[in-house]
Task: structure prediction
Amino acid sequence: MTILVTGGCGYIGSHTVFTLLSQNYDVVVLDDLSNASEVPLQRIAKMTSKKIRFYKGRAGDEGLLNKIFSENEITSVIHFAGLKSVSESIEKPLEYYMSNLMDTVKLLNVMIQHKIYRLIFSSSATVYGRISSCPINELNPTGNTTNPYGTTKFFAEEILKDVANANQELKIIILRYFNPIGAHPSGLLGEHPNGIPNNLFPYLTKVALGTLPYLAVFGNDYPTPDGSGVRDYIHVMDLAEAHVKALNHVFDTENINVYNLGTGIGYSVLEIISAFEKVTGISIPYKIIARRPGDIASCWSDCTKANEKLKWRATRDISVMIQDAWNWQIKNPNGYIE
Ligand code: UFG
Result:
């Protein structure tokens, strides 16, 4: 079976490509390399001794999609390609709507023209917006989003539901990720954000490395046990494995289905700092500053549905996540820039 992975050079995409190849799927990758490089694919090819067919371009390039679907026997698509920075989405909303929404619509349209009906879609817990209590399950209302990035994911989900409703041949699984961190245990694959990272983990590991002077903790006055924000961190390899489970399940699923992917455990920023210090033995300088606009106090998942229906469960705990994130960072201080 050949799977088209859009955004396969990115953080979650590359770990999923590795996992697919390890489980004997054939993989074709489409990526425009706007926020990624081909290096992870070269490394994966070596790690797995398998070939990966690569096309450079946008996930909404209809001409290129026609070519890919004509040249390869694609059975399913995993659609990761998109933009993902919350702060950037506030400055450049149109780019986010073009990439995350319009490209998704075009991809779906060309897929249907080629009678490719199986899609795994990369969504986010951000679609739940300002939630009132945790843990969150899939029945919680969505759409109360706090930034354009979140809104693109919410709208994309709505479009997928409408299209699936109109075309019963379609089989779509929407996966809502909580906070992916960690790296492949070899240290060969990991997260490579452009410029100064926005997210907690890539920032924290740069502070540990000495590249950045200290970690700014965004607020200690949230209604959480220690006042700092609480999130559900999930190992990227657990996430990658969930995609393969979803792919196996997509054949016998309802028309469209949605699953949370997290561990079900929330950690505060201050707990993460002390867990990091314990695992690595490195002390982390930090300063408490004001809350970051748009942040919520707490967000963690109820993943019972994925546990039961996809037969998937996150198996790597926070110390493994920290160990693997740190291993990646020390082995690749400049990410994929070799
Ligand atoms: N934080 C800091 N200092 C930093 C960075 C983050 O204190 O330098 C805090 C945040 O305030 C938050 C926690 O660390 O409490 C996690 O922040 P991240 O930026 O790592 O992640 P978010 O939860 O804000 O957002 C992430 C992704 C989104 C996704 C969301 C889903 O970036 O794309 O998870 O829950 F939508």
